[in-house]
């Protein structure tokens, strides 16, 4: 393993790649397809395309049944096919700049239920670190294939998406080796900062060109609760914007201190994460995992039926490859939010397709084996998943009581199990704590620019 340091983009450059030194930007763009594992691809960690546009889709009314706009930001064009590569990089670079990590000396351990682990598998070796990914054994086969293709090692832990405790147990064991350095997305504020700053600004730029130019709500399912941090940024721009969290019906952790296994890979990890600003969340909805699986299959494979049912052909064909399971969860959740808040024409709900279909063919194969292949009749029925999304239950408003309970639930994972102090937990209840974390990016950028020399 090489021992020299590699430095990538600043937060400002991830927000706006036109800030990158022109010759570096040109080389990075050329290497996207020519050599996708080259370290200069770190400068392609951004929501923006080569032409600086931000991939997104406004779902057609024929699918949603709404007058309000459901704006879905598309993340599959990041270097690993998911936006979690951004937090993996930001967590690493912050600690490297602080002198806590050194290539050739340290092995990076990325506890994950999927895309963050894939991000760590890609980022670590690009920055001359050995990467070790801890991942539940029941995640999709494609996830493991991607991790290994990027040059990282995998440790499989028992269970599925919601078995994070088992991940933590393995990480505790790995921590005994001083060479292993843990980059835990569930507690590292580099994750929060990437989404507050980079994803938040991208969402603002997108929404300004749609409808009334404002965000009435930001909707995001929680895995590490990184993506939903962009809601903290949007609410500062639009004080009436509602931040809405989603979790599986099968694992309603915040909703009712519930638990259980589920099939929405990437979310619902059976605990309240340290970096989740729950006291700023306005609503919580629970989504059924079977609807997400069936909805994904419809959007991926049912273009002919969608077109026959009145959905524009360009939209129906554009759904293909852009969505994963949690993406469909976010879409269903956004539709429910629009109905609950009675949002109308010109109003915008922002949500995310956090990865694409490329890591779910094996999941769809299992679905075909368990429920049968999707016929045209079945595809037509599945349209009701979107058009008739029910809001009669599994809806919880972020009252003062509920917000405090969501916050208090952090105690059981973080104080009892992970060694945080009660005073640290109480500090998270103060708005100034979050403002301080948000305000650290300019200083980090300054240190990074100095370290890399441009």
What does this structure look like?
- This protein has 454 residues and is α/β, with parallel strands linked by helices.
- It folds into three domains: 23-51, no CATH class; 56-78 and 195-397, Rossmann fold (3-Layer(aba) Sandwich); 85-184, 3-Layer(aba) Sandwich (Rossmann fold), CATH 3.40.50.1100.
- The chain contains 22 helices and eleven strands.
- The protein has helices at 11-15, 22-34, 61-64, 85-97, 115-126, 141-149, 164-174, 189-207, 230-237, 253-256, 289-301, 303-308, 313-318, 325-340, 361-371, 376-382, 384-387, 400-408, 410-415, 422-427, 431-438, 441-452, and strands at 56-58, 69-74, 107-111, 130-136, 153-157, 180-182, 217-221, 242-248, 283-287, 348-353, 395-397.
- It is globular.
- The two termini are 25 Å apart.
- The model has no long low-confidence stretch (mean pLDDT 95).
């Amino acid at each position: 393993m090489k021992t020299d340091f590699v430095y990538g983009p600043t937060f400002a450059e991830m927000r706006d790649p036109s800030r990158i030194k022109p010759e570096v930007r040109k080389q990075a763009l050329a290497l996207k397809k020519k050599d996708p594992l080259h370290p200069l691809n770190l400068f392609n960690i951004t929501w923006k395309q080569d032409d600086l546009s931000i991939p997104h889709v406004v779902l057609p009314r024929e699918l949603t049944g709404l007058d309000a706009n459901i704006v879905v930001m598309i993340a599959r064009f990041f270097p690993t096919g998911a936006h979690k590569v951004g937090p993996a990089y930001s967590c690493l670079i912050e600690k490297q700049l602080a002198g806590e990590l050194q290539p050739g000396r340290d092995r990076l351990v990325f506890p994950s239920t999927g895309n963050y682990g894939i991000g760590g598998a890609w980022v670590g070796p690009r920055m001359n670190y050995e990467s070790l990914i801890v991942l539940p054994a029941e995640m999709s086969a494609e996830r493991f294939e991607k991790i290994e293709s990027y040059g990282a090692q995998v440790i499989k832990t028992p269970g599925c998406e919601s078995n994070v405790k088992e991940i933590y147990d393995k990480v505790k064991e790995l921590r005994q080796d001083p060479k292993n350095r843990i980059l835990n997305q569930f507690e590292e504020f580099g994750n929060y900062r990437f989404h507050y700053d980079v994803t938040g600004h991208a969402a603002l730029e997108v929404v300004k060109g749609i409808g009334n130019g404002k965000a009435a709500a930001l909707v995001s399912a929680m895995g590490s609760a990184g993506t939903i941090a962009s809601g903290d940024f949007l609410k500062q721009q639009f004080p009436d914007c509602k931040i809405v969290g989603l979790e599986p019906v099968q694992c309603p952790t915040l909703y009712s201190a519930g638990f259980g296994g589920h099939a929405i890979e990437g979310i619902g990890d059976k605990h309240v994460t340290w970096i989740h600003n729950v006291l700023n969340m306005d609503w919580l909805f629970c989504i059924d995992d079977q609807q997400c699986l069936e909805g994904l299959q419809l959007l991926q494979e049912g273009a002919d039926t969608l077109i026959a049912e009145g959905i524009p052909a360009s939209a129906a064909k554009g759904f293909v490859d852009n969505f994963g399971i949690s993406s469909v969860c976010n879409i269903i959740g956004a539709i429910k939010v629009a109905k609950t808040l009675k949002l109308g024409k010109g109003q915008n709900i922002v949500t995310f397709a956090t990865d694409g279909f490329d890591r779910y063919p094996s999941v769809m194969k299992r679905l075909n084996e368990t429920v049968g292949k999707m016929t045209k009749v079945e595809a037509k029925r599945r349209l009701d998943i979107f058009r008739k999304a029910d809001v009669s239950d599994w809806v919880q408003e972020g009252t003062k009581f509920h917000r405090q309970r969501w916050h208090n639930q952090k105690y059981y994972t973080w104080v009892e199990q992970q060694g945080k102090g009660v005073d640290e937990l109480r500090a998270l209840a103060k708005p100034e704590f979050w403002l301080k974390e948000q305000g650290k990016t300019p200083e980090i950028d300054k240190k990074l620019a100095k370290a890399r020399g441009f």
